[in-house]
Amino acid sequence: METSKVIHAIYTDDDVLMAAVKKVKAAKYHIEEVYTPFPVHGLDKAMGLAPTRIAIAAFMYGCVGLTVAIVMMNFIMIDDWPQDIGGKPSFSYIENMPAFVPIMFEMTVFFAAHLMVITFYLRSRMWPFKKAENPDPRTTDDHFLMEIPVHGSINDLQALLADTGAVEINIVDKEAH
Amino acid sequence: MYTLSNRLKIFSVTLVLLGALGWFYSYSASHVSLDEVKTMLAEEASSGGGHGEVADTHAVAEESHEATTNSHDAEATHADAAEGHDEHAEHVMHQIHNRPYSALYVAAFFFMMIALGALAFYAIQYASQAGWSPVLFRVMEAITYYLLPGALIVLAIALWAGPHIFIWMDPEVVAHDELLQNKSDWLNTTWFTIRGLIFIGGWSAYRYFSRKFSLAQDNADINDNRNFKKNFRISAAFLVFYIYTESIMSWDWIMSVDPHWFSTLFGWYVFASMFVSGITVIALITIYLKSKGLLEFVNDSHMHDLAKFMFAISIFWTYLWFSQFMLIWYANIPEEVTYFVTRIEDYKLPFFGMLIMNFVFPFLVLMNSDYKRIPWFIVMAGIVILMGHYVDVFNMIMPATVGDRWAIGLPELSAVALFSGLFILIVFYSLSKAPLLAKGNPFIKESEHFHY
Question: Could you give the ipTM of this predicted complex?
Answer without folding.
Answer: 0.80
